[in-house]
Structures are given as C-alpha cells and as structure tokens.
C-alpha cells in the first residue's frame, strides 16, 4: 500500500486522511475492535461524519468475516 501524496490547495498542503471517525464506524455498524483487527484505519481525534465515508465503511463491513474465538474449557 503506497502512502497518499498530500494535496496542495491555495499554496497550503492539506494532509491525507488518517482514518475514519468513531461516529462513522458506529453509523456503519462496525465495532472499534473489529475495525482495527480488520485493518480499517481509525482516527480517534476526528469528530466529523461524512456520508461518503459511511457508505465506504458499509461496503467494507460486508466483506469482514467475524470468526468467534474458541472458548476455553474450565478444568
């Protein structure tokens, strides 16, 4: 995966996005732990919700397969 190049607007460099916000994850129905284990970038500082990002996350959520962990037997 290549790093995104920064975009230049009006002489200022605008940084590339660092991840999805927690609100976007909630709207898409993803848990934080599941998203991180699946490799979805999460930006804890972001507070915004963009409909485009939520749609992207919904399509990502369809491809994620959650495998239940094996429970240990008590002896």
Automatic annotation (TrEMBL):
Taxonomic superkingdom: Archaea
An example molecular function term from Gene Ontology annotations: RNA binding
A GO biological process held by the record: translation
GO cellular component terms listed in the entry, alphabetical order: cytosolic large ribosomal subunit
UniProt keyword Ribonucleoprotein, yes or no: yes
Key words of the record: Ribonucleoprotein, Ribosomal protein
Entry-linked InterPro entries: Ribosomal_eL13
Protein family per UniProt: Belongs to the eukaryotic ribosomal protein eL13 family.
Protein name: Large ribosomal subunit protein eL13
Gene: rpl13e
């Amino acid at each position: 995966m290549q790093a995104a190049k920064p975009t230049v607007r009006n002489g200022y460099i605008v940084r590339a996005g660092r991840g999805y916000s927690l609100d976007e994850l909630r709207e898409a129905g993803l848990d934080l732990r599941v998203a991180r284990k699946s490799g979805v970038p999460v930006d804890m500082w972001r507070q915004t919700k963009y409909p485009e990002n939520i749609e992207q996350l919904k399509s990502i959520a369809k491809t994620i397969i959650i495998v239940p962990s094996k429970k240990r037997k008590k002896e």
